[in-house]
Amino acid sequence: MNWSTDKDIRSWLPKLQSHRGLWVHGLQQNSLASIKAAAQAGYEMAEFDVRLTSDDVVILFHDEYIQNKLIKKTTYEELNSLTSITTFEDLLKWFVKTKNFKLNIEIKSRDLLSAKLEKQVCKLIRKYQIEKRVLVSSFNPLSLLKIRLWSPSVYRALLLSLEKGDQDHFLIQSGLLNILCRPHILNLRYQDYSERFRQLAKKIPIVLWTVNEASIYTKIKSEIHGVISDTLTPQDLKEL
After folding, report:
1. ω into residue 210 within 30 of 0, thus cis?
2. I need a surface site. Which of 23, 100, 102, 120 has the fewest CB within 10 A?
3. In order of start, what are the domains of the chain with their CATH numbers?
4. Which residues in the chain belong to E strands, given as ranges?
């Protein structure tokens, strides 16, 4: 089996994660403010995206570009002059002061050879001694391999979509590359959940994204471990 198993992971991993922080009421996605809001609203974990600037600053941002500037080719100072950006380290300075809250760090990288982003993420995880409070997720199995090598005690989640596109080709969809990265968790696009994954969910935790309707969660909550959502709240789950 090309998945890592851990006896404690199901109790460690929350049933609900906020997607890019709690931003639906007007805050900026992937920001310190939206992640603080998620913690204050009772979420136990926030998911967010990280990228690397040209001067090796890890920032929270989903897209490759900010106002036509390619992030990996632009300095942090220049990008921050265009729009307010949260750095990963600024987030961690706040995070280490919290209790009963966890982070899902999504590595946004398609690089096969470069390891700068993963190295910086691992460096900051070690600096703030938060190995047991975070997981790292990615569509790129080679990113997870780098995390496995440099921060082996950190949980790893493979992101997967069966939607046609260039980010999830056959080798990833088939799970053949899992032998390299040995993920603990599958974070699956909820539209792709099927019998194949029902069987896998008996062995490892499956978390579905992005589930924004209570009716969808109700149908499959007994089969999967949890969901990542823009709109579902901890109170919603208590009432279902």
Report:
1. yes
2. 100
3. 9-239 (3.20.20.190)
4. 16-19, 45-52, 58-60, 65-66, 69-70, 102-107, 134-138, 155-160, 185-189, 206-209, 226-229
List, in order, residues 6 or more apart from 174 with CB less than 8 Å away: none
The structure tokens listed for 201 are 């969910």
Q: Can you tell me which residue has the tokens 């998945």?
A: 3
| Closest to 18 in 3D by CA, of 33, 4, 7 | 33
What does the angle CA 116 – CA 79 – CA 89 come to, to the nearest 5 degrees? 50
- pTM to 2 decimal places: 0.96
Whole-number pLDDT of residue 171: 67
CA of residue 39 relative to chain centroid, distance: 16
Q: Across all residues in the chain, what is the average pLDDT?
A: 95
Q: For residue 228, which of 36, 86, 21 has the smallest C-alpha distance?
A: 21
Name the residue with tokens 């931003």. Answer: 23
**AA letter at 124:** L
